[in-house]
Amino acid sequence: MKSLIRRRPTGSEDTVPGDGQDWAVDNRPEDVGGWSSGAQANTSALLRWCAWALLILGPLLAGAALVAAPSGTGTPVAPAPPVPSTAGSQGSAGFAVLFVDAYLRAGEGDQEQLAAYYPDATGIRLEGEPGRRTGQQLTVVRLRQTSPGIWSVTVAARVRESGPSAAPTPKRPSAGRQQETAPVPPVERLRYFQIPVATTVTGGTSGYVALSMPAEVAAPPRVASPELLYGPQRPAAPSDPRTQAVTEFLTAYLTGRAGDIDRYLAPGTRITPISPAPYTGIAVDHLAVEGERGGEATTTVPADGTRLRLLVSLRATGSDTVRRPLAYALTLTARAGRWEIAELDGAPSPAPRTAPPVSASPTA
Known about the structure:
By secondary structure, the chain is α+β, with helices and mostly antiparallel strands. The chain contains four helices and 14 strands. It has helices at residues 37-67, 89-105, 111-115, 241-255, and strands at residues 5-6, 24-25, 31-32, 35-36, 133-147, 150-161, 187-202, 205-210, 215-217, 234-235, 281-289, 307-317, 323-335, 338-344.
C-alpha cells in the first residue's frame, strides 16, 4: 500500500509550515491494488448482500431442484399396494337379499322384475308359474370382496316350493264323475345362493348391480366348537351359594320378580332387566364353573374380590306355561360373604390357548 503522506521536494505548494521537515500531503485518492477506496467499499457491500442472498435462497433452490428432478433419475420407489376398500359391503348384502327374493318368486314373464337387479335378465327364459316358490328368512351368511368394487354375497333362504297338482284319475264311465285328488303339500328346505354384486360411488351416492344370475351353492361348512374354560355341566345344588346368586339375579332379570335387580349386582355394574318381563318363573338346572373338574358341592364363599366365571343352564316358563331352555354366561365376584353378579357376558369364554411344547434339540 502506498503511503498517504510522503516527502516532497522543498518549494512545493503543499508544504506544511511549522515543521523542521518538509512534508507534502498527497491529496490524490488512495489506490489499493488498482482499486480506489470507494470501489472497495462498494464491492464489500455487494459481496455481503450476495452471501446473504445465497444463505436465504439456498434451501429454496435445493427444494426446487428436487421437485423438478426428472422421474427417470434416482432409485425408483415401488408404489404401495392398493388396499381393498370395504365401502359398499353392507349395501351389497342388502341388494343381494332383495335380488334372491325376487329371483325365487319369479316365473314366466317376470324378466323385467329381475332386470332391475341384473340388466341382462331381459334375455333369459323363465318358466313356471310366478310365486310358486317363495323365500323366507333370507339372510347373508357370507360376504367377501373378490376384487375392488366386486362383492360375492352368499344368501341363505328357507325356500318353500309348492309342487304341481296331480292330474285327477278318471273313474269308470258308470261312475259319471272324476276322482278328486288332494293337493301336493309344499316342500320347504334351507338353500344357499351366491350373487356377484358390483358397487360404485357417484356423486356421493352408491349404486349396485348384479353381474350374473344367482348360483346355488352348498351350505357353509360347520366348524368345530372351541374348548371352553368351564368345567363339566353338573346339577345346580340349592345349597351352593353360586346357585342361589344366579337364581335370584335371573329371576329378577327375566320375570321382574325377586325385588330390584340392583341388589344382586356388584358395585359399579349396570344391567337393565327385560321389560316387559317375558317369563313367569325360572328353574336353574345346571352350572359349569370355571376351573372346576369334579362335581364337589360348595357351601362357602371365598375372600372378597374373588372373581369366577360360570355357564348357567335353566328353563324359563312362559305365559303359556311352556318351559324353554336358556343359557347365560356370567361373571361373579365375592363380597361380604356372598356372590354378586359382576357382568352378564356376551358369550361363553374360550379356554386359554396353550403354547405347543418345545421339542428338545438333538445333542451333537
